[in-house]
Description:
The chain is of the alpha+beta class. The chain contains 18 helices and 38 strands.
Amino acid sequence: MKKALLFCLLFPALSIQAQQALVKYVKPIIGTQKMGHTYPGATVPFGSVQLSPDTDTLSYEFNGKYNGDVYKYCAGYKYEDKTIVGFSHTHFSGTGHSDLGDFLIMPTQGALQMNPGTADVPKSGFRSAFSHQNETAEAGYYKVKLDDHQIQAELTASKRVGMHRYTFPKSAESHIILDLMSGIYNYDEKTVWTYVRVVNDSLITGYRQTNGWARTRTVFFAMSFSKPFKNYGQKNFDKKQVYGGFWRKFDQNNNFPEIAGRRIRMHFDFDTDEQEQVEVKFALSPVSQDNALENMRTEIPGWNFDQVKTQAQEEWNKELNKININASEDDKVNFYTAMYHAFINPTTYGDVNGQYKGLDQNVHQAEGFTNYTTFSLWDTYRALHPFFNLIQPSRNNDMVKSMMAHYDQSALKMLPIWSHYANDNWCMSGYHSVSVLADAIVKGVYNGDAGKALEACITTANHRNYEGIGKYIDMGYIPAESSGTSVSNTLEYAYDDWCIAQIAKKLGKPEIYETFLKRSQNWKNVYDKSIGFMRPRLADGTFKKEFDVLSTHGQGFIEGNTWNYSFFVPHDPESLMTAMGGKKRFAARIDSLFNMHLPDEFFADTEDITREGIIGGYVHGNEPAHHVAYLYNWAGQPWKTQERVRMILKMQYKPTPDGLGGNDDCGQMSAWYMFSSLGFYPVSPGSDEYALGSPAVKSASLTLEGGKTFSIEAVNQSDKNVYVQKVLLNGKVLTENSIKHQEIVKGGKLMFYMSSKPVKFSN
């Protein structure tokens, strides 16, 4: 009896310990070098705050033109840099364009400097040199020593609040700078207006409005110090204007409690003892200063930094433990870091009271759902949202409801294309929110009004003046004369139309189903049988004569070439295979894609594609061909799918700062890794089927909502045994190279029997 009681007392501690074990496998530094565009700082799952270091202050503009170097700073941090400018509170993870970088904070000591200085002469400003040897990046926690100021900086976060802890040397000149000018993809006129109100000697509030990727973006804040500041002030870098107003009656630069302008930096001054810690809480709100303050007081009411860090890491442990894998140490690092990156975006966009700013710029109340933003849909419809439908269905349900709220508030009556912070930035092509809606509806995840969702999808798909949709509807393709991405847009619209057809089929709407199923075959109108490739087509019906199948620039495609895009018919591989000459020729075409050599000149004009992300001519570092390795299944050569998938996993994902072969794109690259490591992949979201591949894990256990568990085991797993001899689902041999969603979510066991030799059979 005593032993049983002792076990019961110990069991909670053992459970906590088991959860804590997975955090050590998360390495946020992965992807911060070269093309990954991830950030190393502190955030919680799907959090509103992403508190992370920024390593330079490049402008988007240089001599009146786009400054190409700014692309390296989409996440604010570049591993190769030697200095840190400060720590800002909002960041995108893995994107190929950017915004944010709001409210940069930098601790300094010594003579006050109010400019950031330069990377080559860091002591010319408030920035500081740092070393990766004195840097720690964990899930929910970041630490670095600022060498030039001899200050240790630590960061952690709750959902809506960033928390800083700075350990100062003894100094009568210690400062904390709040830079309201700094931003990512910044330029002189980006900040529309800034307001700061000093409430007392330890609390300030305010807001910042910017015009960037999000055209009208306002972020409110509340900032609290653990220690009263002795002095404060501002430096205003605004250009002189003819009208100055009458605020000039005051000395606004020193200890003045109300500051406004476009280009402002604040400083707060302290006396510090040796190793004294000064903490800062910084809360965000999309609605108001009062809401920001309420967010702070609700989420982090006290001043226990270590407790906030522990809570953040416990949140990550809870999410990471939804999948437990048995694999090599490197594979565990890759897997759980991928899971971490996948659970950063979309981000919560609303306050603790449920209020948020809508697309109409009005304040709304989220009733019965959590409102989300940061929808990078051209990327994330492919694998991230399908992954959520398995592992985070309740969240994905709320994400779909957020998209429907976006639609309701849209003056154009369109579902989101690429949305963040109560704006649509209209980036990339397709109307892929319909894919996310279809996948959630077909798989039974969405519990809202599916009929209204179908209406929103149809309205979006029939918006004639958006990026060639009118011509697409009338002609069955987008003419090359009217768009530089005519072919890829046609292909993506066709897939999205198939998704709409699947919703209609689910809801018993045969006329709508037939209409959009017919539209989904429009890919055939840009397929040139004479050369076997997708090709730009002119308004007169002829194909464009000047055409280069290798080039990614000026050929009718966005971020890719026809070698990759010619396989973009994920909803109808059978028909594509027939068009390409049957199974053997189709498989041979995929072989050629992986085995060819793509010279550097053919992707020189594309920022998003670099040598690191390419295998042969297959571009894994960008999304359009992410499903291609699985198409061998349709060609009757599944062993090649198995071989290619395992090769991609090894070549494109490594547990190093440069371990991602391309932009993580808000978790899409990471979701591909997790699906493929588990042994299956959603080739066509909107379908209830996953294509089988070759698992890289020895075993895995998926804890699903509702208490079900789905287990995966790879018998005889090794780096050499990449081929699958047979697959059993709950003890029965699978005769198809696929598994259905419902077969997973009802629980059970999937067993792969692995071998070093492929199992081949006649086509």
